[in-house]
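Thread amino acids onto this structure.
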């Protein structure tokens, strides 16, 4: 997914999907896992506090 407006706390909330999210990582740092947790039916992906890219950051979700 493309994140254009990086959250100040680094937590990206992904609404419920048809498939379970089993992992996540930044495309530019392939192989470095991001923390994921399920919360109120959504998935919260925790990345760095500062945006990795000033314009758009790509977060890969494994489903």
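Threaded sequence (63 positions):
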């Amino acid at each position: 997914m493309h994140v254009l407006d990086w959250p100040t706390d680094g937590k990206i909330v992904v609404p419920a999907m048809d498939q379970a999210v089993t992992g996540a990582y930044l495309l530019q740092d392939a192989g470095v896992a991001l923390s994921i947790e399920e919360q109120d039916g959504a998935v919260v992906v925790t990345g760095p506090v500062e945006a990795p890219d000033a314009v758009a950051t790509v977060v890969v979700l494994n489903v």
